[in-house]
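Hi R.,

Here are the chain sequences for the assembly we discussed:
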Amino acid sequence: MVQIKMKYTGILLLVLFSLSLAAQQTELSELQDLYQDFLHPSDALLNGREYQYYFDQRHTPLIPKDPYPSTSVLIRKKLYKNIMLKYDIYKDLLVYYNPNNTFNNMIVPVIVNSNIIEEFTLQLPSGQARFRHLAFSEDQKELLSSGFYELVSDGACKFIIDHNAIKKIQNGEVVYQYKTERYIINSGIVHRIKGKKSLLRAFSDQEAEVNKYLKKYRIQVKLADKEQIKGVIDYYISLKHL
Amino acid sequence: MHADISLRSVLQKAVCLVSLSLFCLHSGFSQDSLHYIKESLYLQTDRDLYVVGEQVWMKVNKLNAHGNKPDNISKVVYIELLNQTGYPVNQFKLHVPDKSGFASFTLSDTLSSGNYLLRSYTSWMKNYPARDFSFRTISVINPFRSIEKIGVQKSVPVVESDDASQLVSTDNGLLLELKFDRSSYGTRERVQVSIHARDSSGNPLEADLSVSIVRSYLLNDQRATFPDPVHSSVRIEPDIPPPYLPELEGVVLNGTLLNSTTDEPIGNEDIVLSIVGKTARCQFYRTNNTGEFYFNLEDLGVQELVIQPLDSVLGDYYVELEPDFLNVYDHPLSGPLYLDTAKLQALNQGIIGMQIENRYKAYRHAKLAHTPEPLECDFYGKAEYHILISDYIPLKTIREVIKEIVPMVSVRVKDGLYSFIVESGVDNVNFDKAPLVLVDGVPFDDVDQILNISLSELESIEVINLKYFLDGHVFEGIIHFVTVEGKMAGLEVDHAVFRQAYAAISKESCFASPVYNSDSLKSSPLPDFRNTLYWNPDLHTREDGNTSFEFYTADETGEYTVIVEGISPEGKSGFIYKKLLVH
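And here is the predicted structure of the full complex:
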């Protein structure tokens, strides 16, 4: 009987706690909605200049190639979901397609002002990617320039991916070759991750342990996906108690 | 068995009923949950007694009124200093982007001696009675004015605790311990202080603290008035927007556009807010049915604001801004000031200290590095074309500059009126509509006046030759003329345009104290008579509950008090005083 009592008391407390938490979140979200309604009643994303197509649609530097509904952008603490966004990896621009923003029955794409974007997410073939506009200090600028980066791991040890494109002429046509570069920022020092050697260099203070981890899980750094690298970072952080 | 089943069934029903009623209650919350969002503030100052001409250093913690946990909803805190009749003698707005913020202001020498009330609130708190704001009483002495009105009371002996160095410690769940590296110090000596924060069970706590070290006679026992978690039950009616909006970014500039002949509000009119300066920071808004508009202002310091309709055809209008500060004072005022007879002699020393410090602190602070100003960015980002006039050979007129140097822009004359034309960067065809023309960040469509600006006054021209979308508007190109002084080069704006200086958000100020870490600094002839030796509003204990700081004593010997007060993330608060002797 005592067990039953405890069980139901537990359920009751859980219900109470989740309701209280939900109420708090609703309160804040309603406050934000109220603020947005008064301060920014128009489409906050329509803030920027029109986007010019400078390429042949067959060789687009815009990702994702196909529109996915799970795209979202966070502007002034408000999350705009299910909107059509594309990221120009060659010019480092976020492009917004509003179906109501048309000219001659064509949607006018707009470059969203990077100053107002807190972050945006895209559904890429490699999974969902969260992008943030990052600025770097003078000593970090040798490797990285300010712009949008996929932020895989945040905190004391950052893991970021630069999605970019190289302009090339192939068979007489201008193409934009998609490529990604992986970086780890540990203690403020930027490390470009090309393979095992560079990864171990990024974690030089725990090199032996990290190496063991790579061997244990048979991670080939060159071919590893972002989740595997994130796993290495999580392991490193656990070693350092960061 | 039957009893068990019946008990289970009763409990199940009870859980269902409670859950259902909670759900209903919760639904009620959702429908009119604005009732339940409540902020409160916790205001701390470096001390209680000041001499006019001195700076008051303060810290404000933003809390959720339900549980007094640190929170971060509003980003602007309004601070007022009210005199004995409740009249504000100083007002400013503080930008607090995080859970706590810091400020300072100088007490004017026009103030009379007496008790003053520091009142702080957020815009959202203005929806609630003024008595729910955060208050702190400070006493001000003006030695340059008659102090006959000040009462003098006989000294009350202080009962010392067992630990002679420990004056008082009060906790509301947060217990603080202070340790000095030595028992006494000489002048211009380094003092190291370690702090440990814990709860009543002895568990270490992370806490957000403020620390001040002041002359002991500049304190009284009115400190640590932590906000009462039980607040007024007055609520905002559902379905009616609250009169004051929360300020989730910067200051909300609220006003009404009115017809100057009829005083009727002008609804559904596109208006623009701009700030005179070299950087274009325009915001556009369509007034609602009652002519109201709302802008978000995140700029620091005093700014020259311009508010005007986007369509210059509208000339019969005026703009009325709502006051920022709340002119309601339905709370108890500060009582009369009584000085302790035992403190009079010491106070005299404090007054001398203030005068010496004000005379010499400029020399000391001049040596401190200044924090660089944040870079400002035009609302349109980087322009497609940026023409710096000084990069080119001198020409005679702006018209000549546009013709010879500025790409994608031309001047057209029609019926004796000048206008600018921008060529689209997409199809190289001229846009149909006139571009948005800015002079020092302000929309200005009198092209004749612009063409008459002296070239010696013009610094640069920026051009965007693409459609620009902003706040529901589409501009077919933007041309921005930036003058050398950034003050619109004396252009005459329409008399109806709202143009006035506006005290926006105040900067956070940093306390600077001298460091005597070398013999030469220690023997510096610059006198040091600080009444506040040290003020650090941003000290945090770590996970293990520990933190430390150091400072240097000044030239005056005597008794100082170290005051540490603060709050934990769970809303536990506490403070501690400890004596420090300088021989």
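Chain B has three domains: 2-35, 39-154+164-222+328-371+510-582, 385-491. Helices of chain B lie at 2-31, 344-365, 398-404, 447-451, 519-522.

Let me know if anything looks off.

Best,
T.
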